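Q: Could you write out the predicted structure for this multi-component system? I'm mainly interested in how the pieces pack against one another.
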Amino acid sequence: MKSLVTTSSSVSPALLPSADLDVARIREDFPILKQKVHGKPLVYLDNAATSQKPQAVIDSEVELYSKYFSNVHRGVHLLSQRSTDAYEKAREKVQNFLNARSSAEIIFTRGTTEGINLVAQTYGQQHVQPGDEILISEMEHHSNIVPWQMLCAQKGAILKVIPINDEGEILLDEYEKLLSERTRLVGIVHLSNALGTVNPVQQMIEMAHQRGIPVLVDGAQAVPHIPVDVQALDCDFYVFSGHKLFGPTGIGVLYGKKELLETMPPYQGGGDMILSVSFKKTEYNVLPFRFEAGTPNIAGAIALGAAIDYVQEIGLDKIATYEDKLLAYATEAMAEIPGVRLIGTARNKASVLSFLIEGVHPHDIGTILDREGIAIRAGHHCAQPVMERFGVPATARASFAFYNTLEEVDALIAGIRKVQEVFS
Amino acid sequence: MSELRDLYQEVILDHYKRPRNFGPLEGADHKAEGHNPLCGDRVTIYLVIEGDVIRNISFQGAGCAISTASASLMTEMLKGKTLAEVEMLFGEFHAMLTGDPSQPADPVQGKLAVFSGVREFPARVKCATLSWHTLQAALKEQKEPISTE
Protein backbone atom coordinates (compact mmCIF):
# COMPACT_ATOMS: atom_id res chain seq x y z
CA MET A 1 0.00 0.00 0.00
CA LYS A 2 1.14 3.52 -0.76
CA SER A 3 1.98 5.77 2.13
CA LEU A 4 -1.13 7.66 3.16
CA VAL A 5 0.41 10.22 5.42
CA THR A 6 2.04 13.21 3.82
CA THR A 7 3.63 16.40 4.99
CA SER A 8 1.33 19.39 4.98
CA SER A 9 3.32 21.12 2.23
CA SER A 10 2.17 18.64 -0.43
CA VAL A 11 -1.49 18.79 0.55
CA SER A 12 -4.13 20.72 -1.31
CA PRO A 13 -5.75 22.94 1.31
CA ALA A 14 -8.97 23.11 -0.72
CA LEU A 15 -9.45 19.39 -0.34
CA LEU A 16 -8.44 18.97 3.24
CA PRO A 17 -9.75 20.44 6.42
CA SER A 18 -7.00 18.52 8.17
CA ALA A 19 -3.48 18.64 6.82
CA ASP A 20 -2.85 15.12 8.04
CA LEU A 21 -4.77 13.01 5.54
CA ASP A 22 -4.09 12.93 1.84
CA VAL A 23 -7.67 12.14 0.92
CA ALA A 24 -7.04 12.40 -2.82
CA ARG A 25 -4.51 9.60 -2.54
CA ILE A 26 -6.69 7.58 -0.17
CA ARG A 27 -9.51 7.72 -2.72
CA GLU A 28 -7.20 6.12 -5.28
CA ASP A 29 -7.23 3.01 -3.07
CA PHE A 30 -11.03 2.63 -3.44
CA PRO A 31 -11.84 1.57 -7.02
CA ILE A 32 -15.60 1.85 -6.54
CA LEU A 33 -15.35 5.57 -5.80
CA LYS A 34 -14.06 6.31 -9.29
CA GLN A 35 -17.35 5.68 -11.06
CA LYS A 36 -20.20 7.87 -12.17
CA VAL A 37 -23.80 7.33 -11.11
CA HIS A 38 -26.57 8.71 -13.35
CA GLY A 39 -23.80 10.58 -15.20
CA LYS A 40 -22.53 12.30 -12.05
CA PRO A 41 -19.44 11.45 -9.98
CA LEU A 42 -20.43 9.07 -7.19
CA VAL A 43 -20.68 10.81 -3.82
CA TYR A 44 -20.92 7.92 -1.38
CA LEU A 45 -22.43 9.14 1.89
CA ASP A 46 -24.01 5.90 3.09
CA ASN A 47 -21.07 4.70 5.15
CA ALA A 48 -23.18 4.03 8.23
CA ALA A 49 -25.04 1.37 6.23
CA THR A 50 -21.83 -0.11 4.89
CA SER A 51 -18.42 1.12 3.83
CA GLN A 52 -16.52 0.68 0.57
CA LYS A 53 -13.45 -1.53 0.26
CA PRO A 54 -9.86 -0.52 -0.44
CA GLN A 55 -7.89 -2.46 -3.07
CA ALA A 56 -5.80 -4.06 -0.31
CA VAL A 57 -8.92 -5.76 1.10
CA ILE A 58 -10.08 -6.91 -2.34
CA ASP A 59 -6.58 -8.19 -3.13
CA SER A 60 -6.34 -10.13 0.12
CA GLU A 61 -9.31 -12.31 -0.87
CA VAL A 62 -8.01 -12.76 -4.41
CA GLU A 63 -4.61 -13.76 -3.07
CA LEU A 64 -6.10 -16.27 -0.64
CA TYR A 65 -8.31 -17.94 -3.22
CA SER A 66 -5.69 -17.94 -5.97
CA LYS A 67 -2.64 -18.95 -3.92
CA TYR A 68 -3.14 -20.65 -0.60
CA PHE A 69 -6.80 -21.37 0.25
CA SER A 70 -7.70 -24.45 2.24
CA ASN A 71 -9.69 -25.29 5.37
CA VAL A 72 -8.33 -24.19 8.71
CA HIS A 73 -7.40 -26.02 11.92
CA ARG A 74 -7.23 -29.47 10.32
CA GLY A 75 -5.12 -30.70 7.40
CA VAL A 76 -1.42 -31.34 7.84
CA HIS A 77 -0.78 -30.16 4.32
CA LEU A 78 0.92 -26.90 3.45
CA LEU A 79 -2.11 -24.96 2.18
CA SER A 80 -4.13 -25.77 5.28
CA GLN A 81 -1.24 -24.61 7.41
CA ARG A 82 -0.94 -21.35 5.47
CA SER A 83 -4.69 -20.67 5.63
CA THR A 84 -4.74 -21.44 9.35
CA ASP A 85 -1.79 -19.12 9.94
CA ALA A 86 -3.45 -16.29 8.00
CA TYR A 87 -6.78 -16.83 9.79
CA GLU A 88 -5.14 -16.80 13.21
CA LYS A 89 -2.98 -13.84 12.21
CA ALA A 90 -6.21 -11.98 11.45
CA ARG A 91 -7.42 -12.76 14.97
CA GLU A 92 -4.23 -11.26 16.38
CA LYS A 93 -4.79 -8.15 14.26
CA VAL A 94 -8.25 -7.77 15.79
CA GLN A 95 -6.80 -8.33 19.25
CA ASN A 96 -4.26 -5.60 18.64
CA PHE A 97 -6.92 -3.32 17.08
CA LEU A 98 -9.15 -3.54 20.18
CA ASN A 99 -6.21 -3.84 22.59
CA ALA A 100 -7.57 -7.08 24.04
CA ARG A 101 -5.38 -8.98 26.48
CA SER A 102 -5.44 -12.21 24.52
CA SER A 103 -6.39 -13.43 21.04
CA ALA A 104 -8.47 -16.09 22.82
CA GLU A 105 -10.89 -13.25 23.65
CA ILE A 106 -11.58 -12.62 19.95
CA ILE A 107 -14.44 -14.69 18.50
CA PHE A 108 -15.16 -14.42 14.78
CA THR A 109 -18.88 -14.09 14.04
CA ARG A 110 -21.01 -13.24 11.01
CA GLY A 111 -21.35 -9.68 12.27
CA THR A 112 -22.55 -7.48 15.11
CA THR A 113 -26.00 -9.06 15.09
CA GLU A 114 -24.64 -12.57 15.56
CA GLY A 115 -22.30 -11.37 18.29
CA ILE A 116 -25.20 -9.95 20.31
CA ASN A 117 -27.35 -13.03 19.72
CA LEU A 118 -24.44 -15.19 20.85
CA VAL A 119 -24.12 -13.34 24.15
CA ALA A 120 -27.90 -13.31 24.69
CA GLN A 121 -28.23 -17.04 24.05
CA THR A 122 -25.17 -18.14 26.06
CA TYR A 123 -24.41 -15.70 28.86
CA GLY A 124 -28.02 -14.52 28.89
CA GLN A 125 -29.50 -18.02 28.99
CA GLN A 126 -27.16 -18.90 31.81
CA HIS A 127 -27.67 -15.86 34.05
CA VAL A 128 -31.13 -14.42 33.43
CA GLN A 129 -34.03 -15.63 35.58
CA PRO A 130 -37.74 -14.72 35.60
CA GLY A 131 -38.21 -11.15 36.81
CA ASP A 132 -34.62 -10.17 35.99
CA GLU A 133 -33.93 -7.12 33.86
CA ILE A 134 -31.87 -6.33 30.76
CA LEU A 135 -31.11 -2.65 30.31
CA ILE A 136 -30.64 -1.06 26.89
CA SER A 137 -31.05 2.49 25.58
CA GLU A 138 -33.70 4.21 23.52
CA MET A 139 -31.22 4.77 20.68
CA GLU A 140 -30.33 1.13 20.04
CA HIS A 141 -30.26 -0.45 16.60
CA HIS A 142 -32.80 -3.27 16.22
CA SER A 143 -29.90 -5.73 16.53
CA ASN A 144 -29.34 -4.61 20.12
CA ILE A 145 -33.07 -4.74 20.94
CA VAL A 146 -34.54 -7.87 19.41
CA PRO A 147 -32.05 -10.48 20.76
CA TRP A 148 -32.76 -9.18 24.27
CA GLN A 149 -36.52 -9.19 23.67
CA MET A 150 -36.24 -12.80 22.56
CA LEU A 151 -34.22 -13.69 25.66
CA CYS A 152 -36.69 -11.86 27.92
CA ALA A 153 -39.59 -13.75 26.31
CA GLN A 154 -37.80 -17.07 26.87
CA LYS A 155 -36.95 -16.28 30.47
CA GLY A 156 -39.85 -14.17 31.66
CA ALA A 157 -37.40 -11.30 32.13
CA ILE A 158 -38.02 -7.58 31.57
CA LEU A 159 -36.43 -5.27 29.00
CA LYS A 160 -35.82 -1.81 30.46
CA VAL A 161 -34.98 1.23 28.34
CA ILE A 162 -32.74 4.19 29.22
CA PRO A 163 -34.40 7.36 27.86
CA ILE A 164 -32.62 10.00 25.77
CA ASN A 165 -33.06 13.78 25.58
CA ASP A 166 -34.11 15.90 22.58
CA GLU A 167 -30.50 16.19 21.45
CA GLY A 168 -30.20 12.41 21.35
CA GLU A 169 -28.08 11.97 24.46
CA ILE A 170 -28.43 9.32 27.17
CA LEU A 171 -30.00 10.65 30.36
CA LEU A 172 -27.36 9.47 32.80
CA ASP A 173 -29.51 10.26 35.87
CA GLU A 174 -32.22 8.00 34.52
CA TYR A 175 -29.63 5.36 33.69
CA GLU A 176 -28.40 5.43 37.29
CA LYS A 177 -31.97 4.93 38.56
CA LEU A 178 -32.60 2.05 36.16
CA LEU A 179 -29.55 0.07 37.32
CA SER A 180 -31.19 -2.25 39.81
CA GLU A 181 -30.55 -5.42 41.77
CA ARG A 182 -32.42 -7.26 39.04
CA THR A 183 -30.31 -5.88 36.17
CA ARG A 184 -28.34 -8.76 34.69
CA LEU A 185 -26.74 -6.98 31.75
CA VAL A 186 -26.49 -3.54 30.12
CA GLY A 187 -26.40 -3.34 26.30
CA ILE A 188 -25.38 0.04 24.94
CA VAL A 189 -24.45 1.39 21.53
CA HIS A 190 -21.08 3.14 21.34
CA LEU A 191 -21.95 5.38 18.38
CA SER A 192 -25.59 5.65 17.30
CA ASN A 193 -26.13 4.84 13.62
CA ALA A 194 -29.32 6.90 13.48
CA LEU A 195 -28.23 9.97 15.47
CA GLY A 196 -24.45 10.01 15.43
CA THR A 197 -24.31 10.30 19.23
CA VAL A 198 -21.11 9.02 20.84
CA ASN A 199 -22.18 7.66 24.20
CA PRO A 200 -20.12 8.02 27.39
CA VAL A 201 -19.64 4.25 27.47
CA GLN A 202 -16.65 4.29 29.79
CA GLN A 203 -18.63 6.14 32.46
CA MET A 204 -21.68 3.94 31.89
CA ILE A 205 -19.59 0.78 32.22
CA GLU A 206 -18.10 2.07 35.46
CA MET A 207 -21.58 2.83 36.84
CA ALA A 208 -22.77 -0.69 35.95
CA HIS A 209 -19.64 -2.34 37.35
CA GLN A 210 -20.14 -0.59 40.69
CA ARG A 211 -23.21 -2.78 40.96
CA GLY A 212 -21.50 -5.84 39.50
CA ILE A 213 -23.45 -5.68 36.23
CA PRO A 214 -21.65 -6.65 33.00
CA VAL A 215 -21.89 -4.43 29.91
CA LEU A 216 -22.04 -5.27 26.20
CA VAL A 217 -21.05 -2.44 23.86
CA ASP A 218 -22.38 -2.41 20.29
CA GLY A 219 -19.44 -0.97 18.38
CA ALA A 220 -20.68 -1.55 14.82
CA GLN A 221 -20.73 2.16 14.06
CA ALA A 222 -17.87 3.18 16.33
CA VAL A 223 -14.88 1.12 15.17
CA PRO A 224 -14.52 2.78 11.74
CA HIS A 225 -14.49 6.24 13.31
CA ILE A 226 -13.01 6.29 16.83
CA PRO A 227 -10.15 4.40 18.47
CA VAL A 228 -11.40 1.63 20.77
CA ASP A 229 -9.47 0.13 23.70
CA VAL A 230 -11.49 -2.60 25.39
CA GLN A 231 -9.16 -2.71 28.38
CA ALA A 232 -9.45 1.03 28.99
CA LEU A 233 -13.22 0.82 28.57
CA ASP A 234 -13.29 -2.28 30.77
CA CYS A 235 -16.35 -3.49 28.81
CA ASP A 236 -17.28 -7.14 29.25
CA PHE A 237 -18.33 -7.67 25.64
CA TYR A 238 -17.66 -5.57 22.53
CA VAL A 239 -19.14 -6.44 19.14
CA PHE A 240 -18.64 -5.08 15.64
CA SER A 241 -19.00 -5.93 11.93
CA GLY A 242 -16.26 -6.13 9.33
CA HIS A 243 -18.24 -4.52 6.53
CA LYS A 244 -18.54 -1.15 8.25
CA LEU A 245 -14.79 -1.19 8.83
CA PHE A 246 -13.93 -1.36 5.10
CA GLY A 247 -13.81 -5.16 5.27
CA PRO A 248 -16.15 -7.73 3.73
CA THR A 249 -19.70 -8.64 4.71
CA GLY A 250 -20.38 -11.82 6.67
CA ILE A 251 -17.54 -11.38 9.14
CA GLY A 252 -17.65 -9.74 12.53
CA VAL A 253 -16.12 -9.89 15.96
CA LEU A 254 -17.23 -10.61 19.48
CA TYR A 255 -14.71 -9.58 22.10
CA GLY A 256 -15.43 -11.01 25.53
CA LYS A 257 -13.44 -11.02 28.74
CA LYS A 258 -11.76 -14.38 29.01
CA GLU A 259 -13.10 -15.07 32.49
CA LEU A 260 -16.65 -14.62 31.19
CA LEU A 261 -16.20 -16.52 27.92
CA GLU A 262 -14.69 -19.44 29.81
CA THR A 263 -17.81 -19.94 31.91
CA MET A 264 -20.28 -19.56 29.02
CA PRO A 265 -21.89 -22.55 27.33
CA PRO A 266 -21.33 -23.02 23.57
CA TYR A 267 -23.58 -21.13 21.15
CA GLN A 268 -23.77 -23.58 18.25
CA GLY A 269 -22.62 -27.17 18.11
CA GLY A 270 -20.57 -28.64 15.29
CA GLY A 271 -17.08 -29.02 13.96
CA ASP A 272 -14.15 -26.95 15.19
CA MET A 273 -15.83 -26.20 18.52
CA ILE A 274 -15.06 -29.65 19.95
CA LEU A 275 -12.03 -31.49 21.27
CA SER A 276 -13.57 -34.94 21.03
CA VAL A 277 -16.97 -36.35 20.18
CA SER A 278 -18.56 -39.64 21.10
CA PHE A 279 -22.24 -40.52 21.31
CA LYS A 280 -21.93 -40.55 25.08
CA LYS A 281 -20.07 -37.31 25.64
CA THR A 282 -18.58 -34.42 23.73
CA GLU A 283 -15.73 -32.37 25.06
CA TYR A 284 -15.78 -28.76 23.95
CA ASN A 285 -12.80 -26.96 22.53
CA VAL A 286 -10.87 -24.17 24.27
CA LEU A 287 -11.36 -20.47 23.61
CA PRO A 288 -11.90 -18.97 21.10
CA PHE A 289 -12.74 -22.05 19.01
CA ARG A 290 -15.52 -23.14 21.38
CA PHE A 291 -17.67 -20.35 19.90
CA GLU A 292 -16.75 -20.91 16.25
CA ALA A 293 -18.70 -24.00 15.18
CA GLY A 294 -18.31 -25.10 11.58
CA THR A 295 -15.88 -23.97 8.90
CA PRO A 296 -15.54 -20.26 9.58
CA ASN A 297 -15.55 -17.36 7.13
CA ILE A 298 -11.84 -17.79 6.43
CA ALA A 299 -11.63 -15.27 3.58
CA GLY A 300 -13.75 -12.79 5.52
CA ALA A 301 -11.50 -12.93 8.57
CA ILE A 302 -8.32 -12.57 6.50
CA ALA A 303 -9.78 -9.64 4.55
CA LEU A 304 -10.94 -8.03 7.80
CA GLY A 305 -7.32 -8.29 8.94
CA ALA A 306 -6.30 -6.46 5.75
CA ALA A 307 -8.91 -3.77 6.44
CA ILE A 308 -7.56 -3.30 9.96
CA ASP A 309 -4.02 -2.98 8.58
CA TYR A 310 -5.27 -0.35 6.15
CA VAL A 311 -7.11 1.69 8.77
CA GLN A 312 -4.21 1.44 11.24
CA GLU A 313 -1.74 2.62 8.64
CA ILE A 314 -3.77 5.80 8.24
CA GLY A 315 -4.36 5.97 12.00
CA LEU A 316 -7.71 6.13 13.75
CA ASP A 317 -6.75 9.30 15.62
CA LYS A 318 -6.13 11.05 12.32
CA ILE A 319 -9.34 9.58 10.87
CA ALA A 320 -11.36 10.81 13.85
CA THR A 321 -9.86 14.31 13.64
CA TYR A 322 -10.49 14.54 9.89
CA GLU A 323 -14.06 13.24 10.12
CA ASP A 324 -14.88 15.60 12.97
CA LYS A 325 -13.96 18.52 10.73
CA LEU A 326 -15.98 17.05 7.87
CA LEU A 327 -19.00 16.62 10.14
CA ALA A 328 -18.66 20.11 11.61
CA TYR A 329 -18.45 21.61 8.12
CA ALA A 330 -21.53 19.69 6.96
CA THR A 331 -23.49 20.48 10.14
CA GLU A 332 -22.80 24.19 9.75
CA ALA A 333 -23.74 24.21 6.07
CA MET A 334 -26.99 22.32 6.79
CA ALA A 335 -27.92 24.74 9.56
CA GLU A 336 -27.83 27.56 7.03
CA ILE A 337 -30.49 26.01 4.78
CA PRO A 338 -34.01 27.13 5.74
CA GLY A 339 -36.40 24.21 6.22
CA VAL A 340 -33.70 21.69 7.14
CA ARG A 341 -33.83 20.13 10.59
CA LEU A 342 -31.16 17.93 12.11
CA ILE A 343 -32.18 14.89 14.14
CA GLY A 344 -29.44 14.15 16.65
CA THR A 345 -27.56 17.19 17.92
CA ALA A 346 -25.56 15.65 20.75
CA ARG A 347 -22.46 17.50 21.93
CA ASN A 348 -20.36 14.43 21.23
CA LYS A 349 -21.11 13.18 17.72
CA ALA A 350 -19.30 11.40 14.92
CA SER A 351 -19.78 10.75 11.22
CA VAL A 352 -23.59 10.73 11.03
CA LEU A 353 -25.93 13.51 9.91
CA SER A 354 -29.63 12.63 10.14
CA PHE A 355 -31.90 15.30 8.73
CA LEU A 356 -35.36 16.26 7.54
CA ILE A 357 -36.43 18.73 4.88
CA GLU A 358 -39.71 20.45 5.61
CA GLY A 359 -42.47 19.25 3.30
CA VAL A 360 -40.40 16.48 1.71
CA HIS A 361 -40.45 12.83 2.74
CA PRO A 362 -36.93 11.34 3.26
CA HIS A 363 -37.62 8.73 0.58
CA ASP A 364 -38.08 11.51 -1.98
CA ILE A 365 -34.90 13.20 -0.75
CA GLY A 366 -33.06 9.91 -1.33
CA THR A 367 -34.38 9.54 -4.88
CA ILE A 368 -33.54 13.10 -5.92
CA LEU A 369 -30.05 12.99 -4.39
CA ASP A 370 -29.43 9.65 -6.10
CA ARG A 371 -30.00 11.33 -9.46
CA GLU A 372 -27.26 13.78 -8.45
CA GLY A 373 -24.93 10.83 -7.87
CA ILE A 374 -25.24 11.17 -4.09
CA ALA A 375 -25.90 7.97 -2.12
CA ILE A 376 -27.57 8.52 1.25
CA ARG A 377 -29.93 6.41 3.34
CA ALA A 378 -33.59 7.28 3.78
CA GLY A 379 -35.68 5.37 6.28
CA HIS A 380 -35.77 4.34 9.91
CA HIS A 381 -32.15 3.08 9.93
CA CYS A 382 -33.22 -0.09 11.76
CA ALA A 383 -33.87 2.08 14.80
CA GLN A 384 -37.64 2.53 14.79
CA PRO A 385 -37.82 3.41 18.53
CA VAL A 386 -35.47 6.35 17.83
CA MET A 387 -37.79 7.56 15.06
CA GLU A 388 -40.72 7.25 17.45
CA ARG A 389 -38.81 9.21 20.11
CA PHE A 390 -38.42 12.11 17.67
CA GLY A 391 -41.93 11.72 16.27
CA VAL A 392 -40.84 11.10 12.68
CA PRO A 393 -41.46 8.04 10.47
CA ALA A 394 -38.03 8.29 8.90
CA THR A 395 -35.04 10.54 8.33
CA ALA A 396 -32.55 11.13 5.55
CA ARG A 397 -29.04 10.28 6.67
CA ALA A 398 -25.67 11.28 5.27
CA SER A 399 -22.80 9.40 6.89
CA PHE A 400 -19.13 10.03 6.31
CA ALA A 401 -15.91 8.07 6.06
CA PHE A 402 -12.31 9.29 5.77
CA TYR A 403 -12.48 9.07 1.96
CA ASN A 404 -15.18 11.74 1.79
CA THR A 405 -14.24 15.32 0.98
CA LEU A 406 -15.46 18.85 1.63
CA GLU A 407 -16.39 19.01 -2.06
CA GLU A 408 -18.69 16.06 -1.51
CA VAL A 409 -20.34 17.87 1.39
CA ASP A 410 -20.81 20.83 -0.97
CA ALA A 411 -22.42 18.46 -3.50
CA LEU A 412 -24.77 17.23 -0.76
CA ILE A 413 -25.75 20.79 0.16
CA ALA A 414 -26.37 21.62 -3.52
CA GLY A 415 -28.40 18.42 -3.79
CA ILE A 416 -30.57 19.40 -0.82
CA ARG A 417 -31.26 22.74 -2.48
CA LYS A 418 -32.28 20.85 -5.61
CA VAL A 419 -34.68 18.74 -3.57
CA GLN A 420 -36.25 21.92 -2.25
CA GLU A 421 -36.44 23.28 -5.81
CA VAL A 422 -38.25 20.17 -7.10
CA PHE A 423 -40.76 20.39 -4.25
CA SER A 424 -41.15 24.18 -4.29
CA MET B 1 -33.48 16.71 -14.13
CA SER B 2 -35.96 15.66 -16.83
CA GLU B 3 -36.40 12.19 -15.32
CA LEU B 4 -36.96 13.81 -11.93
CA ARG B 5 -39.54 16.14 -13.46
CA ASP B 6 -41.20 13.10 -15.05
CA LEU B 7 -41.33 11.47 -11.61
CA TYR B 8 -42.35 14.53 -9.63
CA GLN B 9 -44.94 15.92 -12.01
CA GLU B 10 -47.04 18.88 -10.97
CA VAL B 11 -50.11 16.71 -10.46
CA ILE B 12 -48.18 14.42 -8.13
CA LEU B 13 -46.74 17.28 -6.09
CA ASP B 14 -50.19 18.85 -5.91
CA HIS B 15 -51.78 15.66 -4.57
CA TYR B 16 -48.87 15.21 -2.14
CA LYS B 17 -49.24 18.69 -0.72
CA ARG B 18 -53.07 18.69 -0.77
CA PRO B 19 -54.24 15.08 -0.62
CA ARG B 20 -57.87 14.49 -1.63
CA ASN B 21 -60.28 12.28 0.30
CA PHE B 22 -57.92 12.30 3.27
CA GLY B 23 -59.05 11.05 6.68
CA PRO B 24 -61.26 8.31 8.10
CA LEU B 25 -64.58 7.72 6.34
CA GLU B 26 -67.75 7.70 8.38
CA GLY B 27 -69.87 4.62 7.74
CA ALA B 28 -67.01 2.76 6.03
CA ASP B 29 -67.87 -0.92 5.63
CA HIS B 30 -64.44 -2.00 4.41
CA LYS B 31 -61.05 -1.00 5.75
CA ALA B 32 -57.45 -2.20 5.54
CA GLU B 33 -54.00 -1.05 6.56
CA GLY B 34 -50.91 -1.17 4.38
CA HIS B 35 -47.29 -0.81 5.35
CA ASN B 36 -44.03 -0.43 3.48
CA PRO B 37 -41.44 -1.46 6.08
CA LEU B 38 -38.62 -0.28 3.83
CA CYS B 39 -39.46 3.38 4.25
CA GLY B 40 -42.00 3.33 7.05
CA ASP B 41 -44.91 4.41 4.85
CA ARG B 42 -48.33 3.56 6.27
CA VAL B 43 -51.73 3.92 4.69
CA THR B 44 -55.27 3.02 5.72
CA ILE B 45 -57.98 2.70 3.05
CA TYR B 46 -61.66 3.19 3.96
CA LEU B 47 -64.48 2.08 1.65
CA VAL B 48 -68.24 2.20 1.33
CA ILE B 49 -69.36 -0.50 -1.09
CA GLU B 50 -72.86 -0.85 -2.52
CA GLY B 51 -73.37 -4.04 -4.49
CA ASP B 52 -70.29 -4.11 -6.65
CA VAL B 53 -69.79 -0.34 -6.79
CA ILE B 54 -67.43 1.81 -4.71
CA ARG B 55 -69.75 4.52 -3.39
CA ASN B 56 -67.15 6.27 -1.29
CA ILE B 57 -63.45 5.92 -0.54
CA SER B 58 -60.85 7.71 1.55
CA PHE B 59 -57.35 7.19 2.87
CA GLN B 60 -55.21 8.21 5.79
CA GLY B 61 -51.50 7.81 6.40
CA ALA B 62 -48.01 9.21 6.20
CA GLY B 63 -45.79 8.58 3.26
CA CYS B 64 -43.59 9.93 0.53
CA ALA B 65 -44.81 12.07 -2.37
CA ILE B 66 -45.30 9.07 -4.66
CA SER B 67 -47.29 6.95 -2.20
CA THR B 68 -49.40 9.85 -0.93
CA ALA B 69 -50.21 11.14 -4.41
CA SER B 70 -50.96 7.63 -5.61
CA ALA B 71 -53.43 7.08 -2.77
CA SER B 72 -55.01 10.48 -3.31
CA LEU B 73 -55.42 10.02 -7.07
CA MET B 74 -56.70 6.50 -6.58
CA THR B 75 -59.47 7.64 -4.25
CA GLU B 76 -60.40 10.42 -6.65
CA MET B 77 -60.55 8.05 -9.56
CA LEU B 78 -62.37 5.08 -8.05
CA LYS B 79 -65.52 6.69 -6.71
CA GLY B 80 -68.46 5.17 -8.57
CA LYS B 81 -66.38 2.47 -10.24
CA THR B 82 -67.42 -1.19 -10.22
CA LEU B 83 -65.10 -3.76 -8.68
CA ALA B 84 -64.43 -5.19 -12.14
CA GLU B 85 -63.37 -1.73 -13.34
CA VAL B 86 -61.12 -1.35 -10.28
CA GLU B 87 -59.40 -4.59 -11.08
CA MET B 88 -58.85 -3.58 -14.68
CA LEU B 89 -57.46 -0.17 -13.69
CA PHE B 90 -55.02 -1.70 -11.24
CA GLY B 91 -53.91 -4.20 -13.88
CA GLU B 92 -53.17 -1.38 -16.32
CA PHE B 93 -51.49 0.71 -13.64
CA HIS B 94 -49.29 -2.15 -12.50
CA ALA B 95 -48.33 -3.03 -16.07
CA MET B 96 -47.35 0.59 -16.71
CA LEU B 97 -45.19 0.78 -13.58
CA THR B 98 -43.34 -2.46 -14.12
CA GLY B 99 -42.99 -2.30 -17.89
CA ASP B 100 -39.68 -1.97 -19.75
CA PRO B 101 -38.68 1.72 -19.43
CA SER B 102 -37.14 1.66 -22.91
CA GLN B 103 -40.54 0.90 -24.46
CA PRO B 104 -43.46 3.32 -24.64
CA ALA B 105 -45.76 2.89 -21.64
CA ASP B 106 -49.00 1.00 -22.13
CA PRO B 107 -51.88 3.45 -22.13
CA VAL B 108 -53.65 3.92 -18.79
CA GLN B 109 -56.80 5.79 -18.02
CA GLY B 110 -56.93 9.42 -16.99
CA LYS B 111 -54.59 10.86 -14.46
CA LEU B 112 -52.89 7.55 -13.63
CA ALA B 113 -50.58 8.37 -16.55
CA VAL B 114 -48.79 10.90 -14.33
CA PHE B 115 -47.08 7.93 -12.66
CA SER B 116 -45.44 6.75 -15.88
CA GLY B 117 -42.16 8.33 -14.70
CA VAL B 118 -41.99 5.83 -11.82
CA ARG B 119 -40.86 3.18 -14.33
CA GLU B 120 -37.45 4.86 -14.38
CA PHE B 121 -37.17 4.43 -10.59
CA PRO B 122 -37.65 0.73 -9.79
CA ALA B 123 -37.08 1.35 -6.07
CA ARG B 124 -40.19 3.53 -6.03
CA VAL B 125 -42.70 1.17 -7.67
CA LYS B 126 -43.75 -0.11 -4.24
CA CYS B 127 -44.53 3.45 -3.16
CA ALA B 128 -46.94 3.86 -6.07
CA THR B 129 -48.67 0.50 -5.56
CA LEU B 130 -48.98 0.48 -1.75
CA SER B 131 -52.42 2.09 -1.68
CA TRP B 132 -53.70 -0.17 -4.48
CA HIS B 133 -52.54 -3.32 -2.70
CA THR B 134 -54.14 -2.02 0.48
CA LEU B 135 -57.36 -1.38 -1.43
CA GLN B 136 -57.39 -4.99 -2.59
CA ALA B 137 -56.87 -6.13 0.99
CA ALA B 138 -59.80 -3.94 2.08
CA LEU B 139 -62.02 -5.45 -0.61
CA LYS B 140 -61.07 -8.92 0.59
CA GLU B 141 -61.65 -7.81 4.19
CA GLN B 142 -58.16 -8.88 5.17
CA LYS B 143 -57.72 -8.40 8.90
CA GLU B 144 -53.92 -8.40 9.04
CA PRO B 145 -52.14 -5.28 7.74
CA ILE B 146 -50.61 -5.96 4.35
CA SER B 147 -46.96 -5.31 3.66
CA THR B 148 -45.06 -4.50 0.49
CA GLU B 149 -42.27 -6.85 1.59
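A: Regarding packing and overall arrangement: The first strand of chain A starts at residue 36 and ends at 37.
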